[in-house]
């Protein structure tokens, strides 16, 4: 049978605020065990939470960026369960009255489809700490708790079940990462856990309106693993359904090394979190003035940037999407175009998407660490454009600039890479080539015009690749034609 | 009894400034008094002799250096043992926290220290402030100084008994459903629950967050007003603390009650009310009238629902607030059997051994009220009725300035009398609970004695942040009567 896959994602983004959501402890990653804790995040008797304003602003930035509806009044709720990484015995979260509802995330797929996914809600909550078990530390019969992460602010971003395949789920997740990084509210690092994701996936017969029984998958710590886990689960469910089986609602863990999802041992009882509004926190009011202030500080967002690159610079859709996926890459590209001129935008795009990204990959560095500043790349593009160097030589110049940290002009001068455009100089080289290859000349003249490449190669070799290719071809054609 | 022990705050400050005695001498007098009375009363859970003497000496040094501004400089006070005080045990009268030393000061404790107060010790209470008799203390009950066989009221029984037995000048307690006013009534002292948000709750070990409020105990209205002023005010560490200016609460104490409109709610003369209590209240009403107040009969129609609403909301919040007592990071830890795994075995054993019966009862009540499928029928419904109770008061306060009633329907009962009957125990707070649900300020002051010599309390409730009005009315009643001058026969 043909099935339609239905996927919804519940994403947790750790905010990059200075301090925690309800106290002044550092929210930094790492630190010695329990170094970033205080009376409040330790949940000592008598302490009270106080909401961090920066957390609300970060949330509002994302809410506005995705066009969510921001509640004028929202509340925090307590979610109860006992676990040693949860100091108060409850997590402060939002339940019936979240700060944001609705909104949409847009992305383009590799095959050029435009996808738009509706969000259910975005809410604020605190993270739990973590447990380190004795086999990793100290006494194997003990567990140790590190509460540095307890109280670090999280956003929970819940999508509607509108994703239809694992690849789109990955693209959606990547787009969320792009968004939180553009907004500078999270570093969006899946490996370090600052971006986490649980996925709900179900299958239904093609054309059916009714959702199938869903399975929740956890423990996917990279974009690739998210896709792999969903692909595996899609296949597993299809096989069960095809063989007449039934899918049971359950939570499964992705086992990265085995490449399979495994059912978690189901608890005898269902959790009752006993949510109720946190009486220690007053309802949060967000007025129009505050929203306007946050809106005024929003950066240019990836969708707008991509559209600008297409409209103003005439870039193809694909280029624009690649260049805007990372705010820093887009900024680099913008600077190159600014220095080289809009008419050079496509050339700039080719250089950035090609050689620049290759260089970053090879050196495993970020665009901010790129050894070629954008202005220098722009000057190199200008050198090609004004005929000082050839496009081919430019590759060499690029590598040398990256290697030496010198200006492209300096490299061209030092290495004598200036293009030979002087026709008399090229003519004399051509004459030498013709004179020393009589057989090939005869064959060419006899109709083997494919040999043009051979003559170009010989002449280029003789000029150290510096001959202007266009002038060289013209002169060759002229001299060989006679 | 040493004469120094009869002095109020204003007289103490004047005498200290005049060098009639030193803060250290005064503190020693109180420490001796504690020695004399504690075996009978058991108001204190810990006496901080060294800390108190060193604070007293520091106060003497400040007085010597000309500090005349600190409102409690050199005044010996004591606090209920649910207020955290750095480096000392804060037990909440619970086995669970028997050895818990708070690493920080509650905001009120810090404010007492800033005001120059000498903190003598930590006072007994019902465990986690859950009770009306102080019998639920894991460390033994406090006895009423007026009759050692009777309860001092609760949960702030130690705070009331300590002031009544003159083993501190003033004290702080906390009031969730009457836990300041009811013991004040039982022990014949003044006790006030301010408006919710008036005093920071930071460092107050929570029972029910939306109801808990710290407040003063004193032997007269003026002292209560001074202590209230010293600890009130906005605190950035408590989101629910009000950003309202703190007036001088002593300013209107002599202003009288002429023209003041006092409402008498018919619903507060309940069935089963002790006739001696009712008679004392009627006499008090007459006193107010003689003083020029206008007495009006009013109705607070939803009063009968206050007690059930309270016994849903308070335990619901308590079940959540007490979830942190899991034996992991502080307090009692017991290894249990591992029927549900060693972790849950530890939780169960720690909580089973750490909490007393009343605390467990309320955790169960609250957990039930919040559980899936019952939440709307109990918690949500109770919140709606709470709103109705607030509206009752709002409507009443359009007609009157103050609402007057008895503080408790009966005087102090005998120790052990109601222990096996939680409902009759809960009824002790039937007249005080509505004020907590509505977040209003309320004060209890002595208004007479029963034939057996037990104090009777009068309650005045005011509009939000109108502490001054009820203090003014209470001061007028106090100067027109002599009820607060009697001393317990210790």
Mean pLDDT of chain A: 92
Largest sheet of chain B: 11 strands, mixed
How far is the N terminus from the C terminus of chain A? 71 Å
Shape estimate of chain B: globular
CA gyration radius of chain A, whole angstroms: 30 Å
Instruction: Give, in order, the helices and strands of chain B.
Output: HHEHEHEHEHEEHEHEHHHHEHHEEH
Give the chain pair forming the largest contact, with residue counts: A-B, 28 and 46 residues
Q: Runs of chain B with pLDDT <50, length 5+?
A: none
Q: Mean pLDDT score of chain B, rounded? A: 96
The CA-CA distance between the termini of chain B, in Å, is 10 Å
**Amount of helix of chain B:** 25-40%
Tally of separate helices of chain A? 15
Could you walk me through the main structural features you see in this protein, from its secondary elements to its overall organization?
Chain A has helices at 53-65, 166-182, 223-242, 288-296, 302-313, 317-324, 327-340, 345-363, 374-385, 391-404, 408-414, 423-436, 438-445, 452-462, 469-481, and strands spanning 3-14, 69-70, 73-74, 77-80, 90-93, 100-101, 104-108, 114-126, 130-133, 143-146, 153-159, 195-205, 215-218, 250-255, 260-263, 276-277, 284-285. Chain A is of the alpha+beta class. In chain A, the strands form four sheets. In chain A, strands 1, 2, 6, 7, 8, 11, 12, 13, 14 and 15 form a ten-stranded mixed sheet that branches. A three-stranded antiparallel sheet of chain A has the order 5-4-16, with no helix packed on it. In chain A, strand 14 and strand 15 (260-263) form a beta hairpin. The longest helix of chain A has 20 residues, at 223-242. The termini of chain A are far apart. Chain B is α/β, with parallel strands linked by helices and 490 residues long. Chain B has helices spanning 9-17, 23-41, 49-64, 107-114, 157-164, 181-187, 221-231, 275-290, 303-321, 341-354, 357-370, 375-396, 422-426, 433-437, 467-480, and strands at residues 44-47, 76-80, 118-123, 170-175, 190-193, 213-218, 261-265, 294-298, 402-406, 442-449, 455-462. In chain B, strand 10 and strand 11 (455-462) form a beta hairpin. Chain B is globular, with a radius of gyration of 21 Å. The A-B interface holds A 39, 42-51, 78, 80, 82, 84, 87-90, 145, 272, 274-276, 279-282 and B 82-84, 90, 92, 97, 100, 102-104, 106, 201-206, 208-210, 236-240, 316-317, 319-320, 322-326, 328-330, 343-344, 347, 367, 370-372, 375, 379.
